[in-house]
Amino acid sequence: MSHEMHLVDAFTGAPFRGNVAAVCITDGPAEPAWMQQVAAEMKHSETAFLHPGKDGWNLRWFTPESEVDLCGHATLAAAFVLWIAGHAKPGSAIAFETKSGTLTANKDGDLITLNFPAEPVTSTASVPGLDRALGVTPLFTGRNRFDLLAELPTAADVCTLEPDMAALAAIPARGIIVTAASDLPHFDFVSRFFAPAVGVPEDPVTGSAHCCLGPYWGEKLRKIELYGFQCSARGGTVRVTLLGDRVLLGGHAIHIFSGSLLV
Fold it and tell me: Hey, which residues are catalytic here?
């Protein structure tokens, strides 16, 4: 049996930038062990698995090492694939049933907008080992149900950071978001995301992290709409609009590859 497979660069308007996700479409529910093997074979930070559901599409996300409960860039990639491959009417809203509830995707021209839960952080005491792992002392440290957030003094501190990955992997969190106010025109904040504990040393552009970054910087900057730049080696941009306990994540996508998974 073969399965439709695509590669998409998400949160970018240029090929080989942003964050690449694999998207696999199956006829029905697949075995988790098989999905994990496929994700390990793909070696991308996330592989999205889709199959038709009663009122939309069922969606799950896997890193090369584990399943995760929320992923932005692979959801954006999944919606993009459904539209371009003819599984959804062009421009129509798409509903995904996921471990984080119902998520929706809409399209306005080339911009794809995802409706996700807001994931604000709560201030936390200093995290043992974090300063040493980062090589810099954060101005603020917070935690949500997934990740730690550390605000660093300057954008340069974020964009030039070379953390100790082994030390970061020992910290009990899915990932560590580092962020600072932007020194770039047209952006409100910069960020990077490290998740060695789940097999992703650095994620190039992380939609789910912006569910946290949006509320954090929105409160600090007193803004409802913000623009973030994730200054990884590949780089990517995310527009965040705050809607109470929800956020809208906006970004673009580029289709890189289509084929068939033969096993």
Answer: 46
